[in-house]
Structure prediction request, 675 residues.
Amino acid sequence: MLYNILIDPFVQMGASPDLFVQTLWEGLVSGVLYALIALGFVLIFKASGVFNFAQGIMVVFAGLTLVGLHEKGVPAWIAVLLTLGVMYVLAIAVERVVLRPLVNQPDIILFMATFGLTYVLIGIGEFIFGGEPKQMITEQLFLPTGSIDVNMLGGRVTFQKLDIAAAVIASAMIIGLSLFFQYTRIGRALRAVADSHKAALSVGISLNQIWAIVWFAAGIVALITGIMWGARSEVSFGLDIIALKALPVLILGGFTSVPGAIIGGLIIGVGEKMAEFYWGPLVGGGIENWIAYVIALGFLMYRPQGLFGDKIIERI
Amino acid sequence: MFYREAGQFKKTYAADMAVFPILQDRIGLGIILFIAAVVIPLTGSTFFISSVMIPFLVFSLAAMGLNIVTGYTGLISLGSAAFMGVGAFACFKLTTSFPNVNILVWILASGFFSAVIGALFAIPSLRIKGFYLAVATLAAQFFLEWCFVRIPWLYNYSASGAIQVPQRTLFGHIITGANATPTTRYLVLLAIVVFMTWIASNILHGRVGRTFMAVRDMDIAAELMGIRLLPAKLTAFALSSFYCGVAGAVMVTLWYTGGEASDLFNIRQSFYILFMVIIGGLGSLLGCFLGSALLNIVPLVLKYGLPSIGIAIASETAEHINHLLVGALIIFILIVEPHGMARLWQITKQKLRTWPFPY
Prediction:
């Protein structure tokens, strides 16, 4: 038994390194996608302290809007622009209708409000586009399809071109976001708000405006994530359960840290694929659903604020 | 006009500290209990009892469980459905292994299994707080859900993975299984819920409940005042899981007579119970009932009420509108009254007392 748990998986890894690399790659790719969802959470949490449960459904909603518009005969690139417009309207609406009346309420109330938002978005999405899964418009968006086979380590490892594209786009977006935060006026305002709401208000930064911007930024991230997730499987409301996987990523990386979201995503992605592939058969498989939480809990016991989160200081 | 406390003098401390100090409240409670226990079983149709009242009572009990940990102790838990599942499977295993023991004993006993598992998953709560803890409770949800599917011993190796409680009797009446009448099941359930509510009210108004509330309001201050945090939080989780477990047990024994699929206890169910607690009112026993009533009635009104007054909507559309309405309702109630419907009821009572004057 102990041999099966502690030694045998590593023997297998050593015996067929090509399979190991393949599993590692699969893990990294799903890790990138988890990281993208977590990134949307982090953006909003940093700027407004709202734990945005609706991020997962925003991903689905953005993807559905894009595909739905394209089905109505709108060319792909106009559909992308229109979807961005929808996400912008959504951001403004959320700020006006949900956040503004609830300002200064306890965190848990705002968290619950985003729960409500989740259900509203599910309702609207199903109402307009129907509940059936849809095919993502991969070719129209010039995303590569097919795969590359590489002969290495005495075997063959398959890389989906789409996954490579996803990794490249995700890195580009993360670099773009950090440049935006670092060098633009709005980015500086965002960081100021993240540091202290009161101080930001007193130097003349409009909180309402910043919140709308930050929700729009999270909307853009959601759209890109939606395209990537959708291209790998399909666009449906079943994805919101997968979006829950971003939560262990968040607690692992810390709610307030962008690098934390990315590294946390990669750890969780690789960890769960490895666990499923090498340790899953011991208990009958399917452990992918909860192993991520166990990994995250293990880290949390040692660092309650996540790997990169701000130190939690409590005062009376 | 009728809701005045003038002339009701409290002569003892106990009378002053009573849960219902005003005579009219006690009369009102008596009327409600009378309607629930006598009028509804006599006049309610089978549909009303089995599709409205039974789910309402089951979810009230579950909401009570979640309210103890989230409303009274301030620890967000997203795993309540999983703890319901523990109770359900425990009850099923116990009654099939020991068929001679009264089912009511097993329903209450299955709560203890749930309480132990709940306390086990609560251990991280000392170190982890707030949203981090909420996500940590998801670990319990997904792990237990996985166990319900992957451990065939739990459902006695049945091919479909569903659990079906066999026929059991109480005082010669059939109360579980396919042959039990809805009215009998309803009355047993009502008795359990009233009993559990009475116990919960006593616990929460006493020392234990005050400990919970102190932890909720500020745990560091509570610690400085001499409350030991780990036992307090573990008790809260255990008590909460006990209630959820009993709710799960009555769900499979008294509600689902046909032995439904095992994904009754999924994450969506957890969220659903959380909504009831929020909409009803955090930290209020009355709120559990109000929230459960509202969330059970809205889907039914959409499904059966609207077509009967001439607005025909497809059942699929009703489902979508239901999502939309529940979401909008949550946001609306949070904006209008963040403390839920229980607070609205208190405000109404205050207005009634001072009527016709504004204050």
Q: What stands out?
A: Chain A touches chain B through 51 residues (CB under 8 Å).
